[in-house]
Amino acid sequence: MWRFVAPAFEGRYRTIMFDFVGAGGSDLSAYDPRRYSSLDGYATDVIDVVRALDLHDVIFVGHSVSAMIGVLAAAREPDRFGTLVMVAPSPRYIDDDAYVGGFSEQDIEDLLVSLESNYLGWSSAMAPVIMGNPDRPELGAELTASFCRTDPEIQKRFARATFLSDNRSDLGQVKLPALVLQCSDDPIAPDCVGEYVHAEIPGSTLTRLTATGHCPNLSAPAETVAAIAAFLNKSPGPGV
Description:
Helix content is 45%, strand content 12%. By secondary structure, it is of the alpha/beta class.
């Protein structure tokens, strides 16, 4: 998912990409439903990687829910993280009083029921919506294929942990330089969500992309790279 973005930074930084346990090329035997019932388990994955490689001054780049996973990991190991880059982040997907997350409780319940009853059908229907860019159907097809490669039971649990999460209170604890990249016409994290994340993280930078949909790392990698590079160039230094 980062193959169009990561190479742009390899000349200056040590770049590390990894699959969370339960996805991609990870060791499925390491998957523990209890550990991964919340985002904290995935934050532990990040910390495990950071510790195993003895990383410091880490620039964590996370997309969507992974941005919140980065927030949680950095809060637990603040001495190892230096910067957060949050691509299309959302701290809560369900509307709550004055907070607009983009979905009602019924929306999310219907989504989870659909996942439970027909995961492959849900993937085929929703991946193109999440991706956006209907004039480039190959992007939606790639995301669909990615969903379908994941164990359905694991993906269902991940969806529940994601869409029922509420990390709003964690944003104010971020003490690192943070970049919030907000896409245009994002069906998962609308403009008001990016504005909320920016307002809640002290000193953060909000950059609005012209890229549409929820996955600019695939649909608009050049713009994504340029925005990240511009932010990092403001405070040059070593990083991972």
